[in-house]
Structures are given as C-alpha cells and as structure tokens.
Amino acid sequence: MLKPLSAAIGSALLLSFAAGTAAAQDTAAAAAPAETDTAQASRAAVNLDNVVVTGTRSPKAVDKIPGAITLVSKAELARSLVLTEDATAVLARTVPGYAESSQAMSNTGENLRGRVALRLFDGVPQGSPLREGTRNGTFTDMGIVGRIEVINGPSASEGIGAAGGIINYLSAAPTKEGNEFTLISRYTTQFKDDSAGWKLGLNFARKAGNFDMLASVSFLDRGITYDGDGRRIGMNTSGSLADTQSRNLFLKAGYDFGEDGTQRIEGSVSHFNVEGKANYIQVLGCRPDERALCGQTRTNTSERGTIFGSKAAINDFKQYQLTYTNSDFFGGTLTVNGYKADQEMRYLPENTIDRQDPRLGPVGTVWDQSEIVTNKKGLRTSWARPSLFAVEGLELRVGLDLVEDTAQQRLALTDRLWVPPMDYKSRAPWMQLSWDIGPVTLSGGIRREDGELHVDDYTTTWYRDRRNVGGGTLDYQENLTNFGAVWRVNEQWSVFGSYGEGFTLANVGIPLRNVQCSGDAGSVQTDGCPNDPPINVGDLLDLNAIVVKNTEFGFNWRGERGSLSASHYDSKSDYGQSLAIDPVTNDLVLLRAPVRIKGYELSADWRFDDAWRISAVYSHTRGKTSFWSADAAGRFGAGGLDKPMGVLDINPDKLAWTLTWSFLPNADVSLGATTLFSRNLSGNDVRAFDNRAFSFTESTKGYTLFDLGFNYDTQRYGKLSLGIENLLDKQYILSWSQPPGGFQNYWAGRGRTISLTHTFKF
Fold it and tell me: Which of 702, 642, 625, 704 lies closest to 114, judged by CA?
C-alpha cells in the first residue's frame, strides 16, 4: 500500500514540489491586473488572507477553513482548455481526490474522494439526487468560467447532495472599465476525415461605474473520436460528447446601489444544450473475459448509421437566478438568492431486456430511449455578522434554505413511465460560528434538514413484472453538525482538523423502477404479482437517506517559492451506497450497505525562478462496504466491511504533474502527465444466515498520459494556443471500463488529439 505513496513522494521531491491545495493553483488571484495570462501563470506564491472561498455560503479566507480546499484559477482553466473542451478534465488534472475523467458527456465513475459531489454553477445545484443521470458535469461553456472552488469532504452548507464535497463553478466577472469583446475560435483534429471539430465563441464584458454585465454565446461542433490504435471509439450510451453539437447562451448583469454601493442586485440567465448528430451507432466490443462468447478481444467502436425512429440524444440545461446583497444590514451582510434550474437528458437508443414489452413487438426487437427530466427551484438566504457581541474575530452566519426538486424518467419512443414523478421539498435553517483567536480559528455549526419525498402510485414495466406500487410521502429529518480548528503556527505553517456531516438521497429513482415480484428469480411475470402482499414506497429501505460523517486533519506550508499541503480523511456512512452491474440488464444498480472510505492527498508547487514552475498532486483512496445489505424482513443485518469498493466507486491512486516554462514575457509551454496506478482488489465473506459465500476481485491496469500546451500572445493579433492531448498517442482502456461484468462500457481512451485556439480581445 505504501509503494505508490513512496513513488509519488519520491517523484514530487525530485521535482522539488511544494504547494498548498488552496493557494498554489489560484495564481491569477495574486497577479497584477496588467499582467498577461502567461505572467499570471508563472506566479506561485499567494497570500492566502486575500483568497476567499464563496462555496461556504459567505466569503471566507482559505487559511481559516479547517479542510482541504482546491481553487482552480482562470490560468489553470485556460491551460486545460488548450488541450480539451471537456468540462471535468481540468478537475482530474488539478484536484487530488477527483477521479479519472470519463472523456464523455456522462460522468459515471467521476466522484470526489469516492463519493458523489454536489456540482454548482454560480451556487445553483446542477442535476438532481432524486434521479442522478450522470450528466451534471457538462452544463455550460467552460469559456465563461472564471474559476472553480472545490471543497473536499461532505458538507451540509449547501444542503442535499454534497456527500463527497462541493464543486462550485463561478462565472467570470468584468474587471476592466469600459467594453471588452473576446472572440474565441478553435479547431481540433485527430487527422481522420470525421474527427475534426471546431468552436466559435464571443464574450462581451462591460463595466461602467456601478453597472457590470457579461454576455456570451458559443457554438461547438465535435467530430467522432479515435483511440491510440486509430480505431473509432464507441458511443457512450449514457452520453457521448463525440459527434455532438453544443450551444451556449449566458447573460449576467449586476448593479451596485445605496450609500457607498453597499447593496447589489444581480441576475443571470444560462441556457446550454448538447445534441447528438446521430451519425453513428455503437458496436459492442469483446472483453478479455468474454472471448469464449464473442471471439477476439476488441473495444467498443462506432460505425455510421442510425436507429430508425430514434431521437437525438440531448443534454439541456436552463438556469435562472436573481441575487440581492446588502453589506450593511443590521451590522452584517444579507444575501438572498432565488433560482430555477431545469435539465432534460435523453440517452442513445438501446434494445436491452429491460426496455422490452411484447405488446410493442417481439422481445429483443423493441428499441427505446431513456429520458430524464428534472426541475428545481429554491430560495437561499444568509446573514453574516462579524464582530458579534463586539468580540473581535467572532462571526455568526445564519440562513434558511427552501428547495423543491422534482424528477421523473420515461422511455421516450414508446412514452412509457420508467421512474414515477418524484417531488422532494426541503426546509433547512442553518447556523455557523467562527472565532479567530490570534493564530487559531475555531468554527462549528449545525444545519437542520427537514424534507419530504412524495411519490404517486405507479406500475413498473413489463420486465419488472408490471407490479403495482402504492405511493406515499417519506419524511427526512436530520441534524447535521460540523466543527473544526485551524492553527496558523507561523507565516509559513498551518495545521487543521475537522469533523463534518453531509446529507443526500441515493439516486432513489433506481430502486423505484426496479421493484418487482418478491419471488422473481429472473423470469418475467406479467400478472402484477397477485400472490405478493401490497407494497408501498415507504416499504423500500433503499429510499433511506445517506448521512456521511467525515473526519480530517492535515497541514499547509507556504514559502516564497512554493507550498505544500497534505490531508488525511476517514469517511463513514452507516447506510451508504456503492455501484454494481446487473448482468442481465447491463445497467448500473445500487447496493445499500455500510460504507467506509479512507485516504490521503498531497498537493505541491515549486517556482524555481520567474520562468520555471512545477506543480503536482497525488491521491490514495480505499473504500470498503458489505457484500449484502440488511434484509427488509429482518432476518439478517448487513454484512461486515469486507468488500473492497471497485473502480466504479473508488479511483485508483493518481499522480499528476505539470511543468511550465515561461520562455518569453508573452509565451509559455507546459508539459504535463497524469498517472493512474495499477490496482488489485479482493475480498470475501460468508453470510451466517444461509451460509452463502461471497467474493470480489478486481484488477485494473494503470497508465500514464502526457500532454503539451503552448501559448503565444502576439498582443496585437491575439493569443495563439496549441494543445496536444495524449502526446505519445498511447493506447489504453479507461480504468472504470476495465472490470468484467458484461456492462456495455468497454471503451478505450482518446488517442493523440491536436487543438489550435485563437483568442482575440478588442
């Protein structure tokens, strides 16, 4: 277990690493406004007291938060966008605990420290925990994102969904007086006839006194993708970015008013749409463990063609919000935010067994497309009062959150209900106290989650025996606490420790749609299970909430040339979730049982001089769960923590580094590498109730990918950027696609991809 860590530390020391998780990556925050992006990227030392995190509901200095924080700056975003437009790729390269990028619209397997993170766009939740469609990582054009704040570990500050932490994408804000246009054009190719892609985007920023606005429109056309062997990569049935078109419209405007500009009103509108061009259909490959059934080992691929009558795959986000801020409200700062967010996801057509119905055609001939629709609206309020009771450094933050979240899933081509409409309403008052006592900051708080989930009566599909399920309302009440401390030992060193709790629902749409006859051993019964006792949604244990309890400790060091941070965490949930593959339907299923995840992370940065800088991150995570969950009839409880959590839940150890050389004041080149280590897992257990034996084994093969980025700012004619992803054109299988199990996800990763970008400001 220590070998990967030793290798990582050795590599990092060899590279003279030293960077704090929070500060080192936010180089742009400390750079002077007149500096170019290249100059900003070369800056490593950051004054943490001047860097704040808004993901904690009100601005807070990073070195006063007892936990591991990662701030991905505009410069880091720009470096990643030189290589790829994938929205989550930058997280995989810069956030230690973030999993391997899926390279797709679907973010299956992409988690934070082995748990699902809550993704926010300007503080508004994306997607829905009621029916997680693994599409909430691609919701806007990354060209308008100013920075990303990642708060690791479970957090109750944003309410439901943050079991693994918070990832908050913040849109850019105008800083320059007057008008500024930014024209972005991009061309991408793998030198195959159908691999070319292009982008055209225009941003307009205006700042005039108390008024500011940002408007953006973009269009992105993507071709098909190829692996390192020059073979087309298969279309991801959960959502491909290949062979798609993306459109984005974003408008944000704000106005400061009142005495000394203490009040502000700001509103934004965002509409993002990805639509498949339907030029290709997936051709399944053959896993090494399945060669007896399908012949020669080969990955999934794509061939030209369409499924007759199918609709385009889509991922459509609409978001509206209005925020009022008053920084002089009874001695504190009041923030009131109202929002509405809608998402529609339609998947590629499939003819798997769970989509069949003899009334529609012979079994095996019915093609259908899953479609998930979610709607969310909410009101979030907060009031932050510094110097409470005239005590210097004592701050109180209180608020009330109201949210209504609805979701359902249908089979779009035949208009069949798959997951019934679900309606979750929540009222959540919260309070946080923090006290700066010289070099020590103490903090603690509580959030009361008071929600209810309502589901109407419904009938399952033909494959699930057409069973009638009674609706009902389930209540969820939980008091979620947190506390922690930070000790700033001196100007260079600080240590922290914390305890926090998070709350979420476990993708409840999946257990709802999978209800079937109690004695069903795989054969389909179509009479609605008349011999079974009636069942209601309140009888389903899998609808129970997940409460995550996390302890963490770590340190940060920062010096004149760089910084270093490390943290260790231990995350537990008595009734958690893990993913498995149904060998019959080839679909993901949830296993509800105790879960414990432990790990440690390193993040580092070192600036040799004004021209040379290197940064690195390393993460090690292991998780354990039970082979079986508690029996609903009470015959036996859940098993012990003897089953290792596989790659669908826990990412292999990761080491990523980037070396940047600013060889001219207006030019730089970056060489980066990401290594995912090989891993072998095994475990077994015997259930005493019936002497049933369980076992689990999984092996994944690691790989290292290099990438190269080049930027040259001509000043007068704009900035030219060249990016080469997978520089050595390595052939590899994505880690989460390697384990056997019959799931239709045997995909190779992208081969060498060349991107040329021109950015012109006027």
Answer: 625
Gap between the Cα atoms of 438 and 494, Å rounded? 13
What integer pLDDT is reported at residue 525 of this predicted model? 78
Q: Give, in degrees to the nearest 5, the angle at Cα 417 between 415 and 418.
A: 120
Both tokens of 334, joined, read: 């009041």
Q: What is the DSSP letter of 666?
A: T
pLDDT in tens, 560-588: 999 999 999 999 999 888 877 666 666 66
Question: Which runs of E-coded beta strand occur in 559-625?
Answer: 562-573, 578-581, 588-591, 595-607, 612-625
β-strands 416-437, 394-411 pairing: antiparallel
Q: Rounded to an integer, what distance in angstroms lies between the CA atom of residue 26 and that of residue 321?
A: 27
What secondary structure letter does DSSP report for 3?
A: H
The single residue listed with the structure tokens 């850019």 is: 172
**Sequence-separated (6 or more) residues with CB below 8 Å from residue 524:** 462, 463, 465
Note whether 589 and 514 are within 8 A (CB).
yes
- Reported as a single tens digit per residue, the pLDDT across 102-160 is 888 888 778 899 988 889 999 898 888 888 888 888 899 999 999 999 988 887 666 67
For residue 362, with 0-12 CB atoms within 10 Å meaning exposed, 13-18 middle and 19 or more buried, which class applies? exposed
Quote the CA–CA distance of 442 and 436 in Å, as a whole number: 7
CB 204 within 8 A of CB 174: no
The three-point CA angle 753-754-756 to 5° equals 145
Please state, in angstroms and rounded to a whole number, the distance separating the CA atoms of residues 75 and 670: 12
Q: What are phi and psi of 261, to 5 degrees?
A: 65, 35
Report the range of poorest mean pLDDT among 58-67, 142-151, 454-463, 623-632. Answer: 58-67
CA 23 – CA 604 distance, rounded (Å): 10
Torsion sign (Cα): 118, 121, 127, 130 = positive
Cα 344 to Cα 179, 242, 407: the distances in Å are 35, 19, 10
- Find out whether 642 and 578 touch, Cβ atoms under 8 Å: no
Positive or negative, the CA dihedral 173, 153, 27, 490 is: positive
Q: What is the dihedral of CA 501, 507, 508, 512, to 10 degrees?
A: -160
Among residues 516, 509, 508, 511, the alpha carbon closest in space to that of 535 is found at 516
Does 372 score more than 50 pLDDT? yes
Residue 475 to residue 470: CA distance in whole angstroms: 16
Integer Cα distance of 415 and 474 in angstroms = 27
The conformation of residue 348, written as its DSSP 8-state character, comes to P
